[in-house]
Amino acid sequence: NTATGIAIINKDAAGNDVPDYQPSLQAAIDKVEAATADSEATVIEVSDQLELSSTVTIENKKVCIRAAGDVSIGRADDSFKGDMFQVSGENASLQFEVKDDGKLTVSGAFTDTSITAEGSIVKVTDGSFGLFSNVILTRNNSSAKGAAIDCTSGQIALAGGTITGNTGANGAVYSDSDILVQGTVIVKDNKIADVQANVYLDKEAKFMITVPVIFVVEVILLIIWLL
Question: Burial of 59 by CB count in 10 Å (0-12 exposed, 13-18 middle, 19+ buried)?
Fold first, then answer.
């Protein structure tokens, strides 16, 4: 296939990466087979800057979006106010990670800073979302419960990365189930209006810490907004 900045990564008999180039991120995800409980995530490598004009959906599939180099994903224009990524289905999962010394920035910023989004950077329903080192979720000013991650009946795993500069109805991260935390994770400078608000744990949700861990939430070690 003709080289683009988006490729499904397959393996040859020798274990080498074989890119299957796709015209868009959604096209690549649509090509991934439906997941089972034992499925491994399919790697989709992104090497160019991406601008989303509509929600990228991951339904009943397991996908790892991996940045090769310094990559950013943002909104194409100010008319797109919805969720940037939606993960749904019992076996569905989405991971953001980087290759080698790469960096991935996923930003919900609008050109007109007075605009408020209606969705999150990542919306999770039933499935799971994983965040890894050198990934940043930032600048989503939204009416959603969690501006960066909004998780209902799903699972969040924070194994690295930074969540900063987001404003949501309940702050940056909302979850009604346990959040798994390991590695070095930074969640800071997020707000409800003008009030510091980083993580909101609803119902009986709690943090499940895997050591060793550095979990930094600005001002004190942990700031949790409880229902």
Answer: middle
CA distances from 165 to 55, 74, 159, 213 (A): 21, 14, 19, 22
Closest among 73, 64, 136, 67 to 101, alpha carbons compared: 67
Q: Which residues have CB under 8 Å from 184's CB, separation 6+?
A: 133, 160, 213, 214, 216
- Residue 146 φ then ψ, to 5°: -120, 115
User: Is the predicted pLDDT of residue 1 greater than 70, yes or no?
Assistant: no
Tokens 């310094």 belong to residue: 70
- Which residues are bridge partners to 125 per DSSP? 88, 152
**CA separation for the pair 86, 122 (Å, rounded):** 6
At residue 222, the pLDDT reads 39
Percent of the chain with pLDDT over 70: 92
Say how far apart CA 207 and CA 99 lie, in whole Å: 27
pLDDT band at 226 (very low <50, low <70, confident <90, very high): very low
Mean pLDDT of 68-93: 97
- The alpha-carbon radius of gyration of the chain (Å, integer) is 17
SS3 letters across 132-179 = CCCEEEECCEECCCCCCEEEECCEEEECCCEEECCECCCCCEEECCCE
- Identify which of 75, 120, 121, 73 has the alpha carbon closest to the alpha carbon of residue 98: 73
pTM for this entry:
0.94
Residues 6+ apart with CB under 8 A from 90: 60, 126, 127
